[in-house]
Amino acid sequence: MNETIPPKEERMTALNGLGSSRKRVEDARFTQGKGNYVDDIKLSGMLFGDFVRSPYAHARVKSINTEAALAVPGVHAVITAADLEPLKLHWMPTLAGDVQMVLADGKVLFQGQEVAFVVADNRYAADDGIKAVEVEYEELPVIVDPFKAELEGAPVLREDIADKKEGAHGPRRHPNHIFTWESGDRDATESVIAEADVVAEEMIYYHRTHPCPLETCGSVASMDKVNGKLTVWGTFQAPHAVRTVASLISGIAEHNIRIISPDIGGGFGNKVGVYPGYICSIVASIVTGAPVKWIEDRMDNLMATAFARDYWMQGKISATKDGKITGLWCHTTADHGAFDACADPTKFPAGFMNICTGSYDIPTAFLTVDGIYTNKAPGGVAYRCSFRVTEAAYFIERMIEVLAIKLGMDSAELRVKNFIRKEQFPYQSALGWEYDSGDYHTAWEKALTAVNYTKLRQEQAERIEAFHRGETRKLIGIGLSHFTEIVGAGPVKNCDILGLGMFDSCEIRIHPTGSAIARLGTISQGQGHATTFAQILASEIGIPAEDITLEEGDTDTAPYGLGTYGSRSTPVAGAATAMAGRKIRAKAQMIAAYLLEVHDNDLEWDVDRFVVKGAPERFKTMKEIAFASYSQAIPGVEPGLEAVSYYDPPNMTFPFGAYICVMEVDVDTGTTEIRQVFALDDCGTRINPMIIEGQVHGGLTEALAIAMGQELAYDELGNVITGTLMDFFIPTAWETPNYQTDYTETPSPHHPIGAKGVGESPNVGGVPAFSNAVHDAFKSFGLTQSHMPHDHWRVWKIADRLGLHD
Amino acid sequence: MIPDNFEYHKPNSITGAISLLSEWGDDARVIAGGHSLIPVMKQRLTDISHLIDLKDIEELKGISISNGIVKIGAMTTQHELIQSEELAKTVPLIREASLQIADPQVRYLGTLGGNVANGDPANDMPGLMQTLNASYELKGPDGTRNVDAREFYEAAYFTAREDEEILSSISFAVPNGGYAYEKQKRKIGDYATAAAGVLIEVENNICKTASIALTNLSDTPVFCQNAVKILIGNKLDEPTIQEAVTACVDASEPVADVRGPVEFKKYVAGIIVRKAITNALARA
Ligand SMILES: Cc1cc2nc3c(=O)[nH]c(=O)nc-3n(C[C@H](O)[C@H](O)[C@H](O)COP(=O)(O)OP(=O)(O)OC[C@H]3O[C@@H](n4cnc5c(N)ncnc54)[C@H](O)[C@@H]3O)c2cc1C
């Protein structure tokens, strides 16, 4: 082989590997409407199931009469808890160690709760059947405020466990109390705070909202009674875990269950949970012998499947007079709704809320979280964030602002003074985490310079003067945020879900002609895995990304993994991909050595080939090696070129970023206009800058929604009052501002390629940036804290309370 | 979110539609763009067993302007209102208001007739038509009659239209002077938190004619009679404008909902009315 070898650069470019802004391979089908979502699945003889849902937030179910419904043309079956009971399927385990009713068993505990499942020829007949089911309810007193759940005379919500003094996460002090979780040193923290020069105290509420993916949840279950195999297509963010759970609760052997997550139209945490609809479609398929589809409509989705946040965080932060933080204390009251269905690793009932020391070197800290039952839908999922990390980041970034006010100090400066310094990494936090790497000061400086912070503060001061002179009714808010995430759950030693370790996996097969297929235990919901994971592999094994097919989501073919949420795909499955690639390369090296008649150690890797050291004209490309592995008998080496890697990460990764938002706030109308959003992210090694930018834009837009208006609101009777997209805020292009993005790159020291995950950073960092901007606008008028969402009337109310309308 | 069964009719004349309405009475409903009706049907909040689609009735379409009178067929879509250059030239207020309704998708289908006939206090066109002092032509089994927009609305979803009547067209005189439609909403596609239509004609520094109506600030649109009286015949200086704004706010009776509490809505109503008056005055 004496052709001239193209220059290294050229060959690297041809691979489209790490660092390439390769276009998303998924987009061709999505933009042409050729995606294959759950609702696109149509099987012969398929029936449709839908729910009778409770109109009440709390009521006893006196009777359910299905007779009239069964008489409706096209209706095949009406399933109630009584039908599920003999199968022991009327209740199901939740991801948080609690149990949840699949169908109302004697009472209902939230509006929209599933009461009966009507199976019919199609959606239309099912809805006719639903209207014909007669349910007799007796209304009960409702708890919507978690602070009232333990008052004397409060109704007991969960009669099934009323007497249980011990829950999945320790002692319960009241029937409506779920758990108390503690982290850190109570005594030390309380004494530091008692003795501190300065203490700021505030209640920070992160309101209830909902991930609201474009595609709602749904499933198609098909029980093949001939071969005993159950296939379920569904909107699952963790298909393997669903298979195991389905097997454990149904008694169907795991090899007889096949779970398929087809294209998923956004998850954002909403599709991590296990829902009654999945169970009912399976049971209905077993009962009727036909495939059964269940798909939520938008109102069902908002009302019944997993919400996010709803954390009341009482905080105290102490510092020296000159602004060195000495201690942080937080007590959180967590509204979990009617069942504890939070999606958290088992040992972390409040997720990673104990990352709430944020980006700061806080020597002493203490956190308690009380989980409380109320008459609201269950959930508490990580909406575009790692488990409770957005809550934690919002809490600390608000507390920093509150402390700065108390100190009379600029909050940018306060941050600089307290950031964990570069040389302190790996850093042991007071609440037990080891931050892997970071360089906060550099990122922060870059951000302040980019927005010209000093000049902005000047402009703000001038505006305030003009306001006082009566020349304007608009104020300027400068929202600062420096967040640290904890993602990539996680090390099996402390992270599991229902006992399943949170490792992930990748299996690679190189085909004889040098192209490849890789399968992963994760599942893309828009993140672009097929694009980015092929890039990781391209760089590892020297095969162009275009020649690598990525497959996820079919439990019959993909290796076992815990799925995609909590920014874990790149940190965990991405690492597995790199490691499997390295196994391929190791074997390829042996084959190349044999073909080139040299010792393994005489070869070196050069982008897409092994080259004999010191003899660059002697090489074997990966393509040649692949063919040889299938065509030649190589002594001591098995034929073929395949590898599998199961990766148990040694630690979490800690992406961070510096975000700044500049906002105009109209004190009369409560309207806000975003002038500038600057977002600097450090997600370690950057696999595909274009995808990172897309993820940041999307995440910022969700953060904007949450901070500025998106809310799952209930009235005092427990009725959902924001149950449609008219009232539940999803920004359109019109409401979405321009984003200015930037980055620094601090690779994770323990990840094979140094990547940390980015999909969720913009939500984690964005919410405090937007919210702090609103607060900042009113700071000089005396505002310290006002709860989100900052929609028009709430902003107006701030101004009103501060006397700006007098 | 699936409507109950219904029979679908698509007559091609007004008389055809009226006879279907007479035949099926309370069980029948006409459908125009469907953007208010279909959501209600999907939630099964109404019992409709006969749906009479007006789309094929040519007599209900079109915009004509002659002798200072604008006549718009009920089935004219909001999109068509925006597209009409002639209308934009003679009554720019219509385009200004229409562009603030919902979003383009809704406006492609939503009609002027459906918007004003619906009786939804959140709809923008009823207030707009009160500002323009428009007259609605109603056709029923007993013939044709006209009702002023300012007299048409009785309560939320209750109007002067009889069940067997069709609202066939809307007419009004081309207004003189300055105009404005101001609306505060939470986002694109949202109904008003508060909105106001204003027309003002000024001659020799004195307000000659004026008209103000509010949207979504009561269970019907609010024609602000008192405010108009305050303006007409006076110099529009700051105290007069303030007095008129106060009169408008006093005439409003908003209810608390997810858009905010009453005191907020009243306050914003004042801001919006003031903006509308200021803008109209600047154009007068
Ligand atoms: C997301 C969304 C946002 C919206 N935002 C706004 C907004 O900001 N401002 C606004 O003004 N509107 C808004 N709308 C409403 C929209 O403008 C509707 O299209 C309009 O109100 C009704 O017109 P339609 O042609 O769709 O009527 P339909 O829904 O077809 O009918 C409405 C009602 O009027 C009756 N009706 C219709 N035509 C006649 C007729 N000729 N004679 C007698 N009765 C008739 C029907 O029987 C029905 O009861 C919004 C709608 C949606 C879906």
Quick overview:
Helices cover 28% and strands 26% of the residues of chain A. Chain A is α+β, with helices and mostly antiparallel strands and 806 residues long. In chain A, a hairpin with a 2-residue loop joins strand 24 and strand 25.
Features:
heterodimer; A: 806 residues; alpha+beta; Aldehyde Oxidoreductase, domain 4; Aldehyde Oxidoreductase, domain 3; 3 domains; six-stranded mixed beta sheet; 35 strands; 28% helix; B: 284 residues; Uridine Diphospho-n-acetylenolpyruvylglucosamine Reductase, domain 2; Uridine Diphospho-n-acetylenolpyruvylglucosamine Reductase, domain 3; Enolase-like, domain 1; five-stranded antiparallel beta sheet; four-stranded antiparallel beta sheet; 26% strand; binds flavin-adenine dinucleotide
Summarize the topology:
The complex is a heterodimer of chains A (806) and B (284).
Chain A: H1 8-15, H2 27-31, E1 47-53, E2 59-65, H3 67-70, E3 75-79, H4 81-84, E4 91-93, E5 99-101, E6 107-108, E7 114-120, H5 123-132, E8 134-139, E9 166-167, E10 170-171, E11 177-184, H6 186-195, E12 198-209, E13 218-224, E14 229-234, H7 239-250, E15 257-260, H8 276-288, E16 292-295, H9 298-304, E17 307-319, E18 325-337, E19 364-373, E20 379-381, H10 389-407, H11 411-418, E21 427-428, E22 434-435, H12 440-451, H13 453-468, E23 474-484, E24 496-497, E25 500-501, E26 504-510, E27 516-520, H14 529-541, E28 548-552, H15 569-596, E29 603-606, E30 609-612, E31 615-621, H16 622-631, E32 642-647, E33 656-666, E34 672-682, H17 689-708, E35 740-743, H18 761-779, H19 792-801
Parallel strand pairs in A: 1-16, 14-15, 17-20, 18-19, 27-28, 34-35
Antiparallel strand pairs in A: 1-7, 2-6, 2-8, 3-7, 4-5, 9-10, 11-19, 12-17, 13-14, 13-16, 17-18, 21-22, 23-33, 24-25, 26-27, 26-32, 29-30, 30-31, 33-34
Chain B: E1 7-9, H1 14-24, E2 28-31, H2 37-42, E3 50-53, E4 63-66, E5 69-73, H3 78-83, H4 85-90, H5 92-98, H6 104-109, H7 112-117, H8 124-131, E6 135-140, E7 143-148, H9 149-152, E8 153-155, E9 158-159, E10 166-173, E11 178-184, E12 194-203, E13 206-215, E14 222-223, H10 225-231, H11 238-251, H12 262-283
Parallel strand pairs in B: 1-3, 2-3
Antiparallel strand pairs in B: 4-5, 5-10, 6-7, 6-10, 8-9, 11-12, 12-13, 13-14
Helix pairs in contact in B: 10-11, 11-12
The structure holds flavin-adenine dinucleotide (FAD).
